[in-house]
Amino acid sequence: MVSKPSSSMLKRALVVVIATVLIMTLVSTGSLANVMIINGEKYQTMASEQQLYDTLLSAPRGDIYDRNMKLLATSSPAWTVYVTPNSFKKLSNKEAKKVRNKIADGLSEILELEKDEV
Q: Where are the alpha helices (DSSP H) in the chain?
């Protein structure tokens, strides 16, 4: 015949279970505090560096020749420049005029065009 556990045995078992859960909770909380509070910036920087990066993709196509080795097409780099007018809405008229002139000066120099044409 199997005897039931005594009340003192049940109390001891309950104390052991509660102590185990409490210790596991404290360890988990400590680890979480270490990751989020103490070393949070370090891990955030590491995650950003791992997820966000710039990649330069260049796909030179090469030259295309006909059967007589006459050059039909060749690759050449091309750039597109965009200026959004929304960024000027935040500026005063005087500041916007200065920025427009600076952009026009820079583009006219790069593109080798007259400032008025740009």
A: 7-33, 40-51, 86-89, 93-111
The rounded distance, in Å, linking the Cα atoms of 53 and 37 is 25
**Which residues have a Cβ under 8 Å from the Cβ of 63 and sit 6 or more positions away?**
71, 73, 74, 75
As given in the structure block, the two tokens for residue 98 are: 């200065």
Q: CA torsion 99→104→105→108, rounded to 10°?
A: 160
Provide the whole-model pTM.
0.39
Q: List all residues 6 or more positions away from 75 whose beta carbon is below 8 Å from its beta carbon.
A: 60, 61, 62, 63
Q: How many CB atoms lie within 10 A of CB 118?
A: 15
44 and 50 in contact (C-beta within 8 Å)? no
Please report, for residues 5, 36, 75, the alpha-carbon distance to residue 29 in angstroms, rounded to integers and kept in the order given: 34, 10, 59
Confidence at residue 32, expressed as pLDDT on a 0 to 100 scale:
95
Structure tokens given for 49: 């560096």
